[in-house]
Amino acid sequence: MFPFSLEKVRTEDEALRAAAAGGRFLAGGTTLIDLMREEIEQPRHLVDINALPLAEIRAEGSDLLIGALARMADVAGHPETLRLHPLIAESLLEGASPQLRNAASIGGNLLQRVRCPYFRMRDAACNKRMPGTGCSAIGGLNAGHAILGTSEHCVATHPSDLAVALVALDATLRVRGPEGERSFPVEDLFRLPGETPHLEHTLMPGELIVEVRVPDGPPARKARYLKVRDRASYEFALVSTAVVLDIQDDRILSARIAAGGVGTRPWRMRASEAALIGKAPVREAFSAAAELAVRGARPLSGNHYKVDLLRRTIVRALEMAGDMA
Amino acid sequence: MSTRGVTITVNGEARSIECDPRTSLLDALREHLHLTGTKKGCNQGACGACTVLVDGRRINACLTLAFMHDGAEVTTIEGLATGDALHPLQAAFIDCDGLQCGFCTPGQIVSGVACINEGHASSAAEIQAWMSGNICRCGAYPGIIAAISQAAGRS
Ligand SMILES: Cc1cc2nc3c(=O)[nH]c(=O)nc-3n(C[C@H](O)[C@H](O)[C@H](O)COP(=O)(O)OP(=O)(O)OC[C@H]3O[C@@H](n4cnc5c(N)ncnc54)[C@H](O)[C@@H]3O)c2cc1C
Ligand code: SF4
Ligand code: FES
Ligand code: FES
């Protein structure tokens, strides 16, 4: 680990000042410290934000508000989460381990870095770690990589489970920076790799994630998160799907679907959603929608299986949601 | 490199150390306080051998820096027994053969104590899911699960 200086801040203003001077925020540290030890991340100055009063989880009207420093475990177990958006709890509990969920924050979860093995191998070419060096995954071991949103420069998936649920729920982020405060959809936090895979998110330098807002959904909402992976727990997704259905009188009034493990960012399936509107919630309709989800998929040498797995995961998740009381 | 002072209450005793800011909580415990019960397996958050309780919550000591815990209360495997009397979960690990080589065991036991306290030990399936952050290379899982079930039943 390279040497760094550090400071603890107590207010958002102090945090913003420290970041404007080039400091890097430290929350739970479960991504950042890991990558600093590998010398993939080399911040010179750490700003410990854990003392900021941003860990609150609360309802405002029927919106759910989650502070950026709330821990994954606390959000997953909070009565307001379970009342308003159990999908969020489900996605959180499918991620990482109990120990990690006790330490890891919501803001840090959204900004966690990719799990592509070459990103961590300092002797391998990787455009994300070292722009212009090439992508070792494209001609290498890529069974875990993306089939959607890839470029010839990077094919890594975004690893967060929570982000998939938040994108399906149309959640927004409130951030504060040197230029003031702004809010935008969680979906817009994530960039496609394009020619600049080293740029992963749309925060401006020094911007602090303050809060996540999850708006109320339509009534009779049925929502599930389904994660498919190599072992039953403590593993990143091969494919995951969050679905939110509004079904009345045996008709789908609205559907929201997002997938993880398949895209270079959490992937919203808008064509599939549109195809479900007005349909009866049966397997035939679900399969047709899933077919639209894989349109445009570009599998790599090692991950053709993800096309079929994505179809099936979507169908299964829709069935699970449809079956909810 | 400049050092920094931190004071952490470890197993009930306030301990002050001067260390490089890079020092993980795990290295602070092992290298500075010579509490080597907490193990370093992967040093990447992937195995759970380094599990300790910080203010009662289980975390991976390898992925957190000592200075982040100034003023906190840390419990390690060394802090579970009362004098010569083993913690009930330690005793249950012996009863149930919850170990082979023993390397993962301190992490399993500390994690298991938290698992029981959290109320996540009501069935074997629940214990499996909530102990999945602790890997055992020897595959002593049946004994580990039996030990946690036994201790949970008694508490
Ligand atoms: C072994 C292992 C398994 C895992 N499995 C999963 C999994 O299955 N699913 C899953 O979703 N995740 C998984 N994770 C990832 C884990 O969830 C993240 O590491 C964690 O959520 C990051 O949060 P943190 O608070 O520790 O972030 P930190 O490491 O503190 O920070 C991460 C990044 O976010 C920035 N940051 C943090 N907070 C803010 C803020 N408020 N505003 C602006 N920037 C900020 C930091 O500067 C840093 O760049 C796993 C991690 C490990 C180590
Ligand atoms: S997929 Fe992205 S992160 Fe992985 S080697 Fe290629 S450029 Fe690097
Ligand atoms: S040593 Fe900390 S999780 Fe493996
Ligand atoms: S007893 Fe050997 S690793 Fe678990």
Automatic annotation (TrEMBL), chain A:
InterPro entries: CO_DH_flav_C, CO_DH_flav_C_dom_sf, Diverse_Substr_Oxidored, FAD-bd_PCMH, FAD-bd_PCMH-like_sf, FAD-bd_PCMH_sub1, FAD-bd_PCMH_sub2, Mopterin_DH_FAD-bd
Pfam family for this entry, one: CO_deh_flav_C
Domain called FAD-binding PCMH-type: residue spans: 1-219
Presence of the UniProt keyword Flavoprotein in the record: yes
This protein's UniProt keywords: FAD, Flavoprotein
GO MF annotations, alphabetized: FAD binding; oxidoreductase activity
Protein name: FAD-binding PCMH-type domain-containing protein
From TrEMBL, chain B:
Domain 2Fe-2S ferredoxin-type: 4-80
Annotated protein name in UniProt: 2Fe-2S ferredoxin-type domain-containing protein
One annotated GO molecular function: oxidoreductase activity, acting on the aldehyde or oxo group of donors
This protein's UniProt keywords: 2Fe-2S, Iron, Iron-sulfur, Metal-binding, Oxidoreductase
One protein family per Pfam: Fer2
Domain of life: Bacteria
